[in-house]
Write a structure and sequence with these properties.
By secondary structure, this protein is α/β, with parallel strands linked by helices. The chain has one domain: 3-Layer(aba) Sandwich (UDP-N-acetylmuramoyl-L-alanine:D-glutamate ligase), CATH 3.40.1190.20. Helix content is 32%, strand content 23%. The chain has 9 helices and 13 strands. The strands form 3 sheets. Strands 5-4-1-8-9-10 form a 6-stranded parallel β-sheet, sandwiched between helices. The longest helix is centred in the last third of the chain and has 15 residues. The radius of gyration is 18 Å and the shape is globular. Bound molecules: alpha-D-ribofuranose.
């Protein structure tokens, strides 16, 4: 089976559900604080594993209870954690999520995710990059590391799916060296400020894949614009929908599906993922995805 390597963040999500954000100087009550496993990298790895893909996670957690929880959760989901390191100086990253009307506002504290430097990656990989068919990256580890990995993959002839979230304007500089760039609409506008989303995908046919939320996915196939529709569902929590899309899309690509087929497969997975609270709770198994139409 073709193996995927996710290099990225693994964190704990601390989620508070609210009717509204407090105003400046105001204190309000929330019913509960819920704790979920998250981090864009770990979420994407779990999305792949749930769909029966073979996936390794390279990242870093703290030497603490949150770090143990992250590792146990990845292992329970059949993600290989041999390349998940433990920091001796920093705690596990956290994301503080305010869930309001099924949508979210997120503040991240990177913690040990910031220790995923190029030296750390080189050490964890131990010369075994060539084992992988595809590497997935996001922007919750240092930007210098992203550039280093993209160059290593380019030299080794390994495909890279770069999900530039949260947006980093430098992502545009990597277009010559990544196989796919998968921003959402807002990130696309931040990365290519001079271009509309339609112009941007037209400039990068079969490479720039833009997720449009309820409107599906947009790319250009070299001849024309292709919009692959989303699946309508009742959303409970949209946290992690983009990660589910990216994981499922990457898996479909290594399995040899076309861009349109991979987008449709990933749209289904993303739709199912928003039907439960927490980034990973709603991510479907392959059986659940196949049963969904
Ligand atoms: O994409 C969703 C993720 O972003 C959350 O799980 C949270 O960890 C944030 O980093």
């Amino acid at each position: 089976m073709k193996k995927i390597l996710v290099i990225g963040s693994s964190s704990v999500d601390l989620t508070i559900e609210l009717d509204r954000m407090p105003a400046q100087g105001e204190t309000i009550k929330a019913a509960d604080l819920e704790l979920f496993c998250g981090g864009k990298g770990a979420n994407q790895a779990v999305a792949i594993a749930r769909l029966d893909g073979s996936v390794d996670m390279l990242g870093c957690v703290g030497n603490d209870g949150h770090g143990e929880l992250v590792r146990e959760n990845l292992t329970a989901n059949q993600v290989n954690t041999e390349k998940l390191g433990v920091s001796s100086i920093t705690s596990t990253g956290t994301a503080h999520i305010f869930l309001i009307n099924q949508d979210n506002r997120i503040i991240i504290i990177p913690g040990a995710n910031n220790e995923v430097t190029s030296e750390f990656v080189e050490q964890q990989l131990a010369g075994r990059l060539s084992e992988y068919s595809l590497v997935i990256l996001q922007n919750e580890i240092p930007s210098e590391t992203i550039h280093y990995i993209v160059n290593c993959c380019k030299k080794a002839g390994i495909s890279v799916l770069y999900n530039p979230a949260p947006a980093d304007v430098e992502a545009a500089q990597l277009m010559d060296n990544v196989t796919f760039l998968t921003p959402n609409e807002t990130e696309c506008q931040q990365i290519f400020p001079e271009l509309t989303v339609e112009e941007a995908v037209t400039n990068y046919p079969n490479q720039l894949i833009v997720t449009l939320g309820e409107k599906g996915v947009l790319f250009h196939d070299g001849k024309e614009l292709r919009q692959v529709p989303a699946y309508p569902v009742t959303a409970v929590d949209t946290t992690g929908a983009g990660d589910t899309f990216n994981g499922a899309f990457a898996l479909a690509i290594v399995q040899g599906k076309s861009l349109a087929e991979a987008s449709q497969f990933a749209n289904k997975a993303a739709a199912l993922s928003v039907t439960k609270k927490g980034a990973q709770q709603g991510m479907p198994t392959i059986q659940e995805l196949e049963a969904f139409s």
